[in-house]
Each structure stands twice: as structure tokens, then as C-alpha cells.
Amino acid sequence: MPETLIKVSGIIDRSSASQNPIIAEGLSAILNGDGKLLRPGLLLLSSQFGGALKHNSEKCLSLAAAIEMLHVATLIHDDVIDDSPLRRGQPSVHTSYGKQDAVLIGDFLLSRCFILVSEYSSQEQALALARAISVICSMEIEQNSSRYQADTSIRRYFKKIMGKTALLFSLACYVGAAEAKASSESAARLRRVGYNMGMAFQIIDDILDYTGSAETVRKALGNDFKAGIVTLPLIFALTMDGSGELKKLTVPGQFALADSGRVIALVKESGGIEAARSCAKKYTDRALREISLLPGGAPRDMLEKLTQRLLVRNY
């Protein structure tokens, strides 16, 4: 792990410290669960496109820590809603401490996130973060209300993952650039880079729910489907369901009872995975086009390599 991200992890640990043993243990389990720290990394990388703030300054590192704390808090809440047993290869917080305590632990982390933001960010970025949380919550409510509804449209799916994932990627890139006083053109371009990266990232995540290995992805295969969450591979597969078997398995009243193994097989056979992967590549290509128009140098090269690597990941 790069030295700057090690420092970010240290700030997160210090900022989220608590005398309460349940909070301390619950956060330790998820914060030390081998997270990728992708969003903080994007913020730090984007800050290198501006000259007013060093990417390893206390302000930049603290804002990166706040972005990750917000992300982890939403993960804790997500797992409660989805009843997911694992997170980052470890028992999820609610599995170990119960749903009520898990929600409160997530709320505690959110409060510490805002303390960091209030200390180190401009009012504009603090408002942007607050707005992001409201959108994330709205999208989670929408996802929860549409469980086991296989007639979800592609447009509705894109709207959901925009709020669930792409928004925070976009915010990380923009905040890093804006706080470092990058040009308004570069900051806006980095916002778009983050958005397209986030869209592609979530689509690949949803593909891995059908194709990944439990050991690599660190969660059970088909977990989203079992929870009634309709994602792009299934949406595409239903449009190419020549036999009608997949549609029968996912009609109201049958979806929750369907054999997930059979559904996964049908999604693969129908071409749903390939169609979703093609869609992820389109978003990746859009991100790469935006990156190619950023000022040249090591930060741009690193951002390009990262974007390409995320498209072919298996974790």
C-alpha cells in the first residue's frame, strides 16, 4: 500500500476511535478488513492536478479519510438492509453485533466523517458531501423498495448505481482537484472521470456477483440475486431469454424462491454477462477519453492505468 494511503488509514483509525467497546471492535473489524481505499486514492491522485495543495498534506489526507469513512458507513448500512453475512471477507458488522448496533456504528462513523470535513474542507465541499449522502440514502431506499422486481429498466438501474457508487467516485475526484485549486476545466473533467469510473466499477461488481469466486470477491456468489436485487446482467439476460425459463423463475411470487444456481447459469448462457461487460467498457472508454484531455504527466498516466485495471479486475 502506498505511504499516503497508510497515512489515510491512520487518520481514519484516530478519527473513529471510541471508548465504547462495541463501536471500537465493530469498526476495527471492517476498517482493517483489507479494503481497497480506492476513493481516497482517487481524491489524492486528483489533487495532483492542482498546485495549491500537496497530495500528502494533512488537509488532503484528512479529506481522503473522510471520503472513505463515508463509504464504509454506507457499507455498514447496506449490509444491514441486504442482510449480507460477509464484508471484505469478514463477518459483517450486523452479523457480529446485531442490526441495531450496526446502524448506530454506521451513524457514529458518519458523524466522525463530518467532523473531519468541517475541520479541513471548504463550505462548498462540505455541502457537496451532505448532498451526496442524501442521494445515496434515496437510492438505497429505492433499491430496497424494488426488490424482487425483475422488470426493472436499464435506465432505472443506471440511476440507482449513479447514486450508489458513481456519485462518490465523482465527488472524490472533484474534491481532490477543487481543494488543490486545479483549473475549473480540469476539476470538471475529473468529476466526469470519476462518474464514468464509478459506473463501470459498479457494473463490474454486479457482474462478479454472477461470475466471481467467493474467495476472490470475498462474498457469496449470487448474494445480490438472493437478496432480490436486480442488476445489469439479469436485466440484459431477461431481454435475451429465448426459452422463457428465466422469466418464469423471476416473476412475482417466484423470484424469492428461485434456485440461484440455475438463475446464474441462465444469465451466463443467455449472454447477459457479455452484454453487461460491454456496457462497463463503454463507461471505461468515456473515462479514458476524459483522462486523455487532462494535463499530461505522471498523475494522468496513473489515472489511466487505474481506470483500465478496474475494468478487468476479478475482485
Structural class: mainly alpha
- Sequence stretches where pLDDT stays below 50 over 5 or more residues: none
Sheet with the most strands, sense and barrel status: 2 strands, antiparallel
Terminal CA distance reads: 17 Å
**How much β-strand is present in the residues?**
under 5%
* Tally of individual domains: 1
Mind explaining what this structure looks like?
The protein has 315 residues and is mainly α. It has one domain (3-311): Farnesyl Diphosphate Synthase (Orthogonal Bundle), CATH 1.10.600.10. 73% of the residues lie in helices and 1% in strands. The protein has helices spanning 3-15, 21-31, 38-47, 58-82, 93-97, 99-120, 123-145, 154-179, 184-211, 214-217, 223-226, 232-239, 245-249, 260-270, 272-292, 298-311, and strands at residues 86-87, 90-91. It has a two-stranded antiparallel sheet with strand order 1-2. The longest helix is centred in the middle third of the chain and has 28 residues, at 184-211. The radius of gyration is 20 Å and the shape is globular. The mean pLDDT is 90.
